[in-house]
Each structure stands twice: as C-alpha cells, then as structure tokens.
User: Which sequence fits this backbone?
C-alpha cells in the first residue's frame, strides 16, 4: 500500500488509520505494545521503513509520547497510538505538547477501565480525551470516527487540523472499530504537511534560534500564553464542530452516541421509526470541540434525548450542557466490553417514548 | 589572548548560583559547537532541573523537555533529522532517577546523540533533596541525618552502568574542579560530538559538578569536596570508547 493510487480495499479500522497516516505524510511513528491497538504498530513497522520513514518501538508509553514531542518539535508529522491505560501514561507528554503548541496525532483505541480493566471495547476515556488530557489548562482536538472509512479519513483530518491550529489531536476510537473490517477507499493524493518556521531543526545561521517550551516563570507571561491559547480555542469552537444527523428533523426522541455506539443506535432508530416512534440520531464527530449547536437546535423540537455510551455516563454531561437542560436527557450505557444490541437501544427508546410522548 | 563569549552562547545572564560549575560546562559545550562550526545544525534539549532555562543560554535551536524525558525527545528529533547534531543536558535527578528508563534505552539503542550529564549529587533546583547520586552519609534536605544506604539505597554510578551496554559508543566521567580538568572535560565533550558526527552511536559525558548553595559550602570548599569526596566514589576516566576498541565486546 501507500503507493498513492486510488484504491478500494478491505481492511481493519486500525490498519486503515495507519495507511491513511502514511499517505498524508506521517514521518514518524512511536509506540508501545498494548491491546487492542496492536494492528497500528504492526502495520507501521511493516510499511514505514519501506517509505524511508521512522518506526520505533519505544521502551514505554511515556518515552513514545516524548519521542512524538521531539519529532513534532522538529517539524515533522508524528504519531503514537495506544489504548486506555497507555494513554493515562501519556498524559504528561500530552500536556507538554499542548503547552508547547505542538501538533501531532495520538490514537486511543479504548478498552474498558478503570485500572487494567479489560481488553474489550469501551468508551470510558471520554473525560480523559475531552476534559482531562493532562495537567494544566488545555484542550486537544478529539475526533470520533464510526466506520473504517472514517478511521482513515479522520486520521488525515486530525493531522491537518493539528498542524493548522498547532495543537495535539486525538482519534478517540475503540476496539470494535479498530478491529472490524470494512471496505475503505484511499484517494490518490492527500494533504501534505505545511511549512513550520517555528520548528527546532537547526537555524542554519540564518535566523534567531527557535525555542520550543512550556515553561514561563513569570506569572504574567504564563497567563498571557494561556489566554492566547484559549483565544485560539474560541476560533476552533466556531469553525470545527462536526456532527452527523439522521432523521432528526421531525424526531421526538433524539438518540445520541459516538463511534461504535452511533452505528448501533442508527439501527435502533430505524427500528423505532418502523414501530411509529419518531426517533432520530445525532452523532458527534468532533468530541472537542463538542457540536453544541446541533443539540441546541434539536432541543427546539425534540421532546427527549437518549445518550448511549460504552461507559457509565461521560458524554452525557456535554449533551445536557449543549441542550441547556431544556429537555430530559436519559442515559443508557454498558461497560466491561459489553456492547448493546440495536434491540437493547430500541427498548430504551420505547421506554423513553412512553415517558415523554 | 582575548577571552570572548562563544558564539553558541546567547547574551543572556545565567541564573546559576555563584560557584556553581554549570556555567563552565555551558561554556565548554558552546566552545565545542563553535569549534566544530555546527551551531546552525544543532538542536539542544534541556529538561527539568537547574538547566531548565538553558534554552535562553544556548544560541542553537532549543527544546525544553519534561523531567527525565530528554533522551526520548532527542530520539524523536534525531530519528526525524539524522544529519543534525542533537545533545541533551541533564542533571542527576533527571537522568538517573525519573529518567533512568529513557537514559538506559536510548543508550542501548545506540541512539546517535550526545548527553551532557551534570552530577552534583543533589537536586539543586528544588532546594537540595537527595539525588540518586547523593553519596552515603551526605546530608541533604530529605536525608537530614545523612544518606543511609540501608534506607535510601546506594548511589548510581551512571558511566559504569551504561558502559555495559552494546549501544554505548562513548562514556567518560570528567570534572571541572581544576583548569587542567576543565581542558580535559572539553576534550571529552568534543569527543562525544565527534562520535555523533561519525554516526557511531550514543555518547555520554558525565561532569562532576558543584552545588555550593545546597551543599552549604563556599565555592572553594565545594571544589575541594569534588576532589576529596566525589572523585573517590566516582572515579574519573573513559569507561567506554568504541573508537579505541579493536572489536566490539559482543
């Protein structure tokens, strides 16, 4: 692969993501083995050397994210991938990346937690990704694909937006999407990395030295840097939120979920419609920035929301905030690697319909 | 002879305490960069510790790293740009405690970088706590009765440890307590950069340094302590040099 031809192939989500990263110019992959993201590292170890690029298995998750930090600081597209417990370990590095305004891609193929948890799919790192990626005031871009095609497409988008806004981006996905196979189409050309005049790659005696840094010992300088970063975040919140809607125009019950949950919920919505319940679906694609507007508008006509997650309830907070608590938001979640069936969700829709319709 | 500031140092005034030998080592690194004519193709990495603000002192491109992570950051830079010079400048707590994993693995990979390792047997920046290299019996803020190896363990001898690894190309321990040793230290640093230039692998130069402030000594007393207490525990010398070995020790 990576021959830059238009191709339609059957691939695992993890592999499609890796292939797309190579095609859009990712120069370096650093990672540490953990289930269920291993296909990404395996694919990269096979294909990156063929392209004359860097694959390096790091000694730890911490080393891997700091290698990404170094590569990003020197101006190249770099990525790492891991799964939940590994991403906890990367938190320090993610904070430094954000504090130093460095673009990169971090993939979290989520598994159940807390602690060692399990190795089956979960969505219990929503808080980690959108609220608490590490210490300090910062956010990172968070994309939630829900098909193998999107695993590829949003890897590219994540790199592009990370470069544009000079901040880390995360693909937040799960073991289900990572390991399932679907057809995926690769284009013959993708975006290429932009010029990075701020990068530390040697000044060649032609400019002042560049400094990549997140340390500000003077309080006012640190606050100024935080304010400048948050001004950038405001622009991102205006420009980047993305969501898919399905049959929401006349819906009484809006089901919402991201990633794997959105796929299952879609079938539940179709089943509900067949039974005469006007259901619809909002699928957030950007989790940070959260697509508040779509929810707020839906709340004008919908009577209730049903938030479905593979967690004990995390994104549901943002749904309640987005709808400004104007409509009841019911939560349905499974954990431990248990994945609800469309019928499980359909039953939840029916129960909610009885309450509010 | 007119003494001038090396070009590879900026005009900034350093924040180092009087009598601290960081300034000497900064100057030596900068002189080597000047003499090799590589300032424009060098990236320095300084992690947390007294060297954390060295990005203001070195005139080459500089990256600040998290505590202990400089060798990993250096790996990211060097793998992306194999023809650039990459050095880290790390203290003992950074390199031999919180960053031991990164240190050992960058060495064993034979990462083609140069590490300048400042061993002053104490955490200077945070006010004088026990370091991994604090000597037995040494009083620090967190060993007020002296370091008891039965409680706090034994000091780490970094050059000795790293010299056992195949990927280490060069490991030398130097001191800057006399003019002759300052000259020898510069030679060692130059050797490290030359090894990097020849793509021969990982080089580390450990510099025994002073911390008069946290040792509670005058600059003179501190230099004397290097000679009477530190060098006996941390002998100076070349621990590994693949350029003088007939063959590897595989």
Assistant:
């Amino acid at each position: 692969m990576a021959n830059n031809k238009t191709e339609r192939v059957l691939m695992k989500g993890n592999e499609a993501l890796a292939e797309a990263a190579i095609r859009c110019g990712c120069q370096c992959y650093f990672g540490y083995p953990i289930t269920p993201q291993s296909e990404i590292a395996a694919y990269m170890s096979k294909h990156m050397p063929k392209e004359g690029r860097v694959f390096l298995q790091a000694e730890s998750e911490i080393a891997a994210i700091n290698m990404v930090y170094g590569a990003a600081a020197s101006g190249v597209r770099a990525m790492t991938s891991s799964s939940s417990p590994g991403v906890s370990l990367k938190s320090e590095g993610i904070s430094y990346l954000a504090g130093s305004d460095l673009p990169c891609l971090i993939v979290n193929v989520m598994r159940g937690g807390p602690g060692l948890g399990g190795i089956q799919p979960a969505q219990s790192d929503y808080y980690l990704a959108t609220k608490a990626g590490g210490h300090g005031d910062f956010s990172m871009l968070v994309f939630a694909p829900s098909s193998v095609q999107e695993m590829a497409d949003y890897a590219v988008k994540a790199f592009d937006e990370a470069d544009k806004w000079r901040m880390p981006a995360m693909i937040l996905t799960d073991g289900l999407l990572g390991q399932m196979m679907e057809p995926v189409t690769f284009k013959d050309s993708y975006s290429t990395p932009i010029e990075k005049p701020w990068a530390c790659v040697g000044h060649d005696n032609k400019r002042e030295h560049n400094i990549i840094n997140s340390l500000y010992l003077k309080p006012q300088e640190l606050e100024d840097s935080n304010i400048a970063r948050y001004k950038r975040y405001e622009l991102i919140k205006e420009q980047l939120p993305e969501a898919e809607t399905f049959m929401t125009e006349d819906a009484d019950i809006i089901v919402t979920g991201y990633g794997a949950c959105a796929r299952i919920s879609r079938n539940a919505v179709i089943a509900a419609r067949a039974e005469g319940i006007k259901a619809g679906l909002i699928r957030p694609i950007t989790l940070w920035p959260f697509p508040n507007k779509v929810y707020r508008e839906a709340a004008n006509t919908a009577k209730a929301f049903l938030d479905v997650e593979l967690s004990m309830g995390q994104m549901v907070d943002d749904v309640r905030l987005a709808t400004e608590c104007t409509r009841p938001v019911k939560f349905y979640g499974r954990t431990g690697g248990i994945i609800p069936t469309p019928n499980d969700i359909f039953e939840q829709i029916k129960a909610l319909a009885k309450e509010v319709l | 002879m007119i003494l001038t500031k090396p070009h590879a140092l900026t005009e900034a005034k350093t924040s180092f305490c009087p009598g601290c030998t960081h300034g000497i080592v900064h100057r030596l690194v900068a002189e080597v960069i000047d003499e090799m004519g590589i300032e424009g193709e060098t990236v320095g990495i300084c992690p947390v510790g007294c060297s954390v603000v060295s990005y203001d002192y070195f005139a080459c491109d500089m990256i600040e790293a998290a505590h202990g992570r400089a060798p990993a950051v250096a790996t990211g830079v060097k793998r992306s740009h194999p023809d650039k010079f990459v050095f880290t400048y790390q203290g003992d707590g950074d390199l031999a405690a919180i960053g031991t994993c990164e240190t050992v693995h960058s060495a064993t990979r034979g990462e083609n970088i140069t590490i300048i390792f400042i061993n002053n047997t104490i955490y200077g920046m945070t006010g004088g706590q026990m370091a991994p290299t604090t000597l037995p019996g040494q009083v620090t803020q967190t060993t007020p009765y002296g370091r008891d190896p039965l409680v706090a363990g034994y000091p780490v001898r970094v050059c000795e440890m790293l010299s056992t690894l195949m990927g280490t190309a060069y490991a030398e321990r130097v001191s800057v307590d006399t003019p002759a040793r300052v000259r020898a230290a510069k030679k060692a640093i130059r050797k490290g950069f030359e090894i990097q230039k020849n793509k021969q692998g990982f080089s580390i130069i450990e510099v025994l340094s002073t911390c008069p402030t946290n040792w509670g000594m005058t600059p003179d007393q501190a230099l004397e302590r290097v000679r009477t207490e530190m060098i006996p525990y941390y002998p100076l010398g070349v621990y590994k040099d693949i350029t003088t070995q007939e063959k590897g020790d595989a």
Summary: The mean pLDDT of chain A is 97. The domain at 244-356 of chain A is CATH 3.40.50.920 (Rossmann fold). The radius of gyration of chain A is 21 Å.
